[in-house]
């Protein structure tokens, strides 16, 4: 009840005309910047930090929250329409969203994404209000073996359901893990795969890899096929979801937050793992298996809802523990410190107006995001009517600008082209791109958690399975790996039973 009263006070702060204006500005800026390949919400918040020096702290963080959610939705817009994720959390949206767009259902995919963001954000923020202390306490108890088990689960789950074979999925994962090895070893300082280049000592930025594999790889792939014949114009489609699609999406919208919120609250989590796991879950539960890979609307609705809910979960660790679990949270932590505010258990007591105003503004931002972007879905979808040569030339330009903006190094553009060629080759030989992406994102973190777990157990492998949580996760992994064989045995058993019944 005390939380509810505090939230009502927060709405009093968030709904003042000036703060409402900053929330709208944040949502618009976040969406616009999220649409640009390679420039995600973290970079947007970082670029806008100096602009907020003269603002009241509450107004500044309300705007930052709007940028966060708007950037996530903007990233999914280009992911769906152009197969070019604006940020890593939008990678999964491309798998089913882009085939939907190519078949003339781009506006429906965007509508499913917008509604998913709204549902996930609302449920996640309600959970933030109700469960923040409990989730924070659970997050503190999770150790290195548990983190490593979760990341292995993400690796296995994604490679098991994508691509024409598991071998291709694991080959793609290996490519991603190899790219993730580039740079200095965090513990020994040893150079790995840098070829003597000092610029590669810090590794290859995830943004460059994402933009290279998706944007450049897709543009080159389309260009290679355009030479054989002109591309047919793609219809925009109707700008709403039909009854059949609503029946298929409402459950993924509600399931997404159950996966996204807890993972967002876990330190070293973020939106990547829950979006991958949501996709896997929806594919397993779907009754329309023949549509997956060709434009299943559940594959957009579930992951987008999970991504939005994970953003609310991220704020749990940031506000209650002072632990940033994503790049955006890290930038927001720097912004808190810029104002002389230290997030942690005492923040709710020392800065109640700021905290509850920020949480209330999340509800306001969700409504603004839905109101602004649902009518714009058919407008965004008309991007597909731009002639392909001009469209992909523009993608290449913005991809190059986004990659160069990461570090300001000419080498980044060379890496972008090389990784783009790798993406082209992966498409040519049927390797799914997503396992490579998750390998790049989670590979370094998984290595770090593996080493920590082994250090804690003096090098004993049993240190990886010394908690009930990790044992449970490995049991799930074993089930995923064994499922194809179990399925064959079940089918054979049923066939044998039918044959025996027929013979009788």
TrEMBL record:
Keywords: Membrane, Transmembrane, Transmembrane helix. PANTHER family: TRICARBOXYLIC TRANSPORT PROTEIN. The chain crosses the membrane at residues 20-49, 61-82, 118-140, 147-164, 170-188, 200-223, 315-336, 356-377, 389-407, 463-486. Residues 20-438 form the DUF112 domain. This is Tripartite tricarboxylate transporter permease. InterPro entries: DUF112_TM. The lineage of its organism: Bacteria, Bacillati, Actinomycetota, Actinomycetes, Kitasatosporales. It comes from the Bacteria. Pfam families: TctA.
């Amino acid at each position: 009840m005390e939380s509810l009263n505090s939230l009502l006070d927060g709405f009093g702060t968030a709904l003042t005309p000036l703060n409402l204006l900053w929330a709208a500005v944040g949502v618009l800026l976040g969406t616009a910047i999220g649409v640009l390949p390679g420039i995600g919400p973290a970079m947007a918040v970082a670029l806008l930090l100096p602009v907020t020096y003269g603002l009241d702290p509450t107004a500044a963080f309300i705007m930052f929250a709007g940028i966060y959610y708007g950037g996530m939705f903007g990233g999914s817009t280009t992911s769906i329409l152009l197969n070019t994720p604006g940020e890593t959390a939008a990678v999964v949206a491309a798998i089913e969203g882009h085939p939907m767009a190519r078949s003339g259902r781009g506006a429906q995919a965007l509508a499913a994404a917008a509604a998913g963001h709204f549902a996930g954000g609302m449920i996640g923020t309600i959970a933030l209000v109700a469960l923040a202390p409990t989730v924070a306490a659970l997050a503190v108890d999770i150790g290195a073996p548990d983190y490593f088990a979760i990341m292995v689960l993400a690796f296995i789950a994604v490679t098991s359901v994508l691509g024409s074979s598991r071998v291709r999925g694991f080959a793609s994962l290996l490519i991603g893990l190899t790219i993730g090895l580039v740079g200095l070893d965090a513990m020994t300082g040893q150079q790995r795969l840098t070829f003597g280049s000092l610029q590669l000592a810090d590794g290859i930025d995830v943004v460059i890899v994402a933009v290279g594999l998706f944007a450049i790889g897709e543009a080159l792939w389309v260009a290679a096929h355009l030479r054989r014949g002109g591309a047919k114009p793609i219809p925009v489609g109707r700008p709403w979801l039909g009854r059949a699609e609503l029946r298929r999406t409402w459950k993924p919208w509600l399931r997404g937050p159950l996966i996204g919120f807890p993972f967002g609250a876990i330190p070293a989590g973020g939106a990547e793992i829950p979006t991958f796991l949501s996709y896997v879950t929806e594919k397993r539960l779907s009754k329309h298996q023949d549509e997956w890979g060709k434009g299943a609307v559940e594959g957009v609705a579930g992951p987008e809802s999970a991504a939005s809910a994970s953003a609310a979960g991220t704020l749990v660790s940031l506000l209650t523990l002072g632990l940033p679990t994503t790049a955006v949270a890290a930038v927001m932590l720097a912004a808190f410190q810029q104002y002389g505010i230290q997030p942690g258990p005492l923040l709710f007591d020392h800065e109640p107006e700021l905290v509850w105003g920020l949480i209330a503004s999340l509800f306001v931002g969700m409504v603004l995001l839905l109101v602004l972007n649902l009518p714009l879905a058919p407008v965004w979808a008309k991007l597909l009517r731009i002639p392909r040569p001009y469209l992909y030339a523009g993608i290449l330009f913005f991809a190059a600008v986004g990659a160069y903006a990461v570090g300001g190094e000419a080498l980044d553009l060379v890496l972008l082209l090389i990784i783009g060629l790798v993406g082209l080759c992966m498409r040519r030989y049927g390797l799914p791109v997503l396992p490579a992406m998750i390998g790049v994102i989670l590979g370094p973190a998984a290595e770090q958690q593996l080493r920590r777990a082994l250090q804690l157990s003096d090098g004993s492998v049993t240190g990886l399975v010394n908690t009930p949580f990790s044992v449970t996760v490995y049991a799930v992994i074993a089930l995923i790996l064994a499922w194809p064989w179990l399925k064959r045995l079940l089918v054979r058993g049923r066939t044998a039973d039918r044959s025996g019944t027929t013979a009788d």
